[in-house]
Amino acid sequence: DPPLESKYECPICLMGLRSAVQTPCGHRFCESCIKKSIRDTGQKCPVDNEVLLEEQLFPDNFAKREILSLTVRCPNAGCSDKMELRQLEKHSSQCKFATVQCPQCLESVRKSHLDEHKS
């Protein structure tokens, strides 16, 4: 799979943007990363050192929409399904390769094997 494009990567945590926000100087960050940065290291953009106040941050709905349309792979071992990120939560709740905790012995088992495991 191709790596994540840098425009979808937070320059603070170097992960995919979560709750993307944009600064007045045009940089994108995870909302929690930039708020922590402003509190911990001062009121400046970590990319260009422009003055930055928390109330100047605004949700980056364009980035959010683009990120949710990125193709991702199901993280469950054995499942080869790919889907848009926006569909991953629904898929994960129904994926036959997902693991769940057995309510009787608390062991982790595949969802599709739970009935057989409990008997």
Topology, please?
Layout: E1 20-22, E2 28-30, H1 31-41, E3 58-59, H2 61-68, E4 71-73, E5 82-84, H3 85-94, E6 99-101, E7 108-110, H4 114-118
Antiparallel strand pairs: 1-2, 1-3, 4-5, 6-7
Number of helices: 4
**Could you name the CATH class of the largest domain?**
Alpha Beta
- Identify low-pLDDT runs: none
- Rg (C-alpha, Å): 19 Å
Order of helices and strands: EEHEHEEHEEH
Approximately what portion of the residues adopt beta-strand conformation?
15-25%
CATH fold-level topology of the largest domain:
Herpes Virus-1
Give a quick account of the main beta sheet: strands, pairing sense, barrel closure. Answer: 3 strands, antiparallel
Distance between the termini: 40 Å
What class would the helix/strand composition place it in?
Answer: alpha+beta
Average pLDDT reading:
92
* Helical content class: 25-40%
The fourth-level CATH homologous superfamily of the largest domain is Zinc/RING finger domain, C3HC4 (zinc finger)
- The coarse silhouette is elongated
Description:
- This protein has 119 residues and is an alpha+beta fold.
- The protein has 2 domains: 6-68, Herpes Virus-1, CATH 3.30.40; 71-118, Herpes Virus-1, CATH 3.30.40.
- Helices cover 29% and strands 17% of the residues.
- β1 and β2 (28-30) form a beta hairpin.
- It starts with 19 loop residues before the first strand and ends with a helix.
- The model has no long low-confidence stretch (mean pLDDT 92).
- Keywords: Metal-binding, Receptor, Zinc, Zinc-finger.
